[in-house]
Amino acid sequence: MFESLQPVPADPILKLAVMHREDPNPNKVDLGLGVYKDEQGHTPIMRAVAAAEKRLLDMEDTKTYVGMAGWARYNELVAEVVLGDNNAYAAAGRLAIAQTPGGTGALRVVCDFINAVKPGAKVWCGKPTWANHHALIQAAGLELAEYPYFDPATHSVDFDAMMATLEAEAQAGDLVLVHGCCHNPSGADLNIDQWQALGELAQAKGLIPYVDIAYQGMGAGMEEDAAGLRLVAGMVDEMVIASSCSKNFGLYRERTGTAIIITKDADTAAMAQGQMNGVIRGNYSMPPSHGALVVQTILDDAELKADWLAELGEVRERIARLRKQLVQALQDAGVEQDFSFIERQNGMFSFLGVNKDQVDTLVNEHSCYMVGSSRINVAGLNDNNMAYFAKAVASVL
């Protein structure tokens, strides 16, 4: 059997991480891996997370299984974070929800659920999108289609082309995957009017919105980043959502996410919950407990929640400041090309807009690590490496 095995190409982002780690250059800059880093280049444990973990260490008295859908209180609290404190969907019994191993786990659970309900259903993804979306959709047996999303010429959402494609080609029952905020890899988000138009199109054509909200709170704010999602949810009968706590709680390695399905009524939600539990049982069986209990502890405690929101605000403000500083640093380095779009975008990611040869030069000659598309993680910059990076970019333009 195993003689048929073929080598699998290394994930380009993880490969960059290895190259960066092994690079002896003291000026090396890692802008590839999509994790938040502080001024020291460290991914810290948030204050509220550390406090919650200490509390759990004293309180936990068992390590028995949680259950296929995870902690019920965690699911309830995350649904409030995503859909609003007084979301009508929970009150009406219209939600099927499960704690998952990270946002990626949520995406896969949702995809497997969709394929169980409608085998081979078509999922429309923006071009570009997070690269793993393609793998997850196709591995679940779903059909992948693409709509235009980002215009490299304007460094913004190509909304007219996006809507024209979905209007002409998407069919009733198709799913349309959109990023809730802080688009990865482009940093270009839909504005509220565009969310409204997307909701109207979904309503008119019978499309099902599929929202991946992995960075809530890291763009404009917790409420602001979910505004488009909530608007569309109020316009349609059915919707699926994948949420992550990796970024806004800094719980990357604890694999804490949530799959949320909105149905037209309570009876359908009950059936959807059973189907989703069956999908989970046939995959990883039970979710990990620790990260979800940390989130639950924080969201259930007013003091911890306030501290978490305050620190998340500090993270968000620092990312916005780094964007502004990068634009200025490029100007100071003598770059005449307009990079002001970086300041207008949201979250950790942006396309720098340089070509593949220029990226290779930045990586191989300047130890500035980024993927071939020129996507950079702005959070990898700090006061110590900003000028060095800007000068490196200037040298390849």
What this model shows, in words?
The protein has helices spanning 12-22, 47-59, 72-83, 88-91, 102-117, 131-139, 159-169, 192-205, 222-225, 227-233, 266-281, 290-299, 302-332, 341-344, 356-366, 386-396; strands at residues 29-30, 95-101, 122-127, 143-148, 150-151, 156-157, 175-179, 208-213, 239-244, 256-262, 349-351, 368-369, 375-377. The chain is of the alpha/beta class. The protein folds into two domains: 10-44 and 317-396, Aspartate Aminotransferase, domain 1 (Alpha-Beta Complex), CATH 3.90.1150.10; 65-300, Type I PLP-dependent aspartate aminotransferase-like (Major domain) (Aspartate Aminotransferase, domain 2, 3-Layer(aba) Sandwich). Helix 2 (47-59) crosses helix 12 (290-299) and helix 3 (72-83) packs across helix 12 (290-299). The N and C termini lie far apart (50 Å). The model has no long low-confidence stretch (mean pLDDT 96).
